[in-house]
Specification:
Elements (H helix, E strand, L loop, with lengths): L47 E5 L5 H12 L6 H9 L3 E8 L4 E10 L2 E9 L8 H15 L4 E7 L3 H9 L3 E10 L4 E9 L5
Parallel strand pairs: 4-5
Antiparallel strand pairs: 1-2, 2-3, 3-4, 5-7, 6-7
The structure holds coenzyme A.
The site of coenzyme A has 23 residues, from strand 4, helix 3 and helix 4.
């Protein structure tokens, strides 16, 4: 089903995080543009591993969250709650020198999963890390019995939409003017366990 052909309701089914902020905070209009925060870690020649994120990573993850999402970033308290909450899988992308350069989170309850958030520091983008994060979150979801994974993405974020499309997510609806200010639509996407059918 293409975007816009189905209206998605005001809430998500079986989503116990309904009181939490939007699953994916609004993101910059040009997520692969000039580095907005040169103090964030850069990729250089380092290699990276994925590992579970813990509360001990809060400072580094929060720094990335605040720099990447700006005014729309989750609060530090919410990020702390997310890292500690039940039914969550949070992964950290860590350089070989131990610096967190990205993270992603999944909510998995029963047969439904939601990608809560994902971000890679500007200096490490374009190297396949966002894809690795997403693939690991999907694998974690399906290992837990999830059958469908949902997410929301700004309509004006072609990089993320391209990534999700290439991973088999399909657009199932639109939440008009979901991201404020700016009146930017949220595209709701779904990936089934079997992928595109
Ligand atoms: C979205 C994000 C996590 C992708 O991370 P990344 O490490 O740069 O992504 P990858 O290198 O794994 O690339 C994955 C795909 O993204 C798309 N992509 C990456 N860079 C792109 C660019 N410059 N232009 C267009 N598409 C691009 C492509 O589809 C790419 O797949 P391909 O390499 O097979 O062509 C990262 O850009 C980011 O943190 N953006 C800001 C936060 C954000 O937008 N989060 C998502 C909110 S919904």
């Amino acid at each position: 089903m293409s975007a816009g052909s189905a209206a998605v309701g005001s809430g998500r089914r079986d989503n116990p995080s309904a009181s939490a902020p939007p699953m994916l905070p609004p993101d910059p209009a040009s997520p692969v543009g000039p580095d907005p925060n040169p103090t964030l870690p850069r990729s250089g020649s380092e290699s990276y591993v994925l590992r579970p994120a813990t509360i001990a990573d809060l400072d580094e993850i929060w720094a990335i969250e605040a720099a990447v999402f700006g005014d729309d970033a989750w609060s530090r308290d919410l990020m702390r709650e997310e890292l500690a909450a039940d039914h969550r899988v949070y992964l950290a992308l860590v350089s070989d020198s131990g610096v967190v350069v990205g993270y992603g989170g999944l909510l998995a309850v029963g047969a439904d999963g939601d990608i809560q958030t994902i971000a890679v520091v500007p200096g490490a983008r374009g190297g396949g890390h966002g894809r690795r994060l997403m693939e690991a979150l999907l694998q974690a979801a399906f290992q837990r019995g999830v059958r469908e994974v949902f997410l929301e993405v700004r309509a004006d974020n072609p990089v993320a939409r391209g990534l999700y499309d290439s991973l088999g997510f399909e657009e199932i609806g639109v939440r008009p003017r979901y991201y404020q200010p700016g009146n930017v639509d949220a595209i709701v996407m779904r990936r089934t366990e079997r992928g595109r059918e």
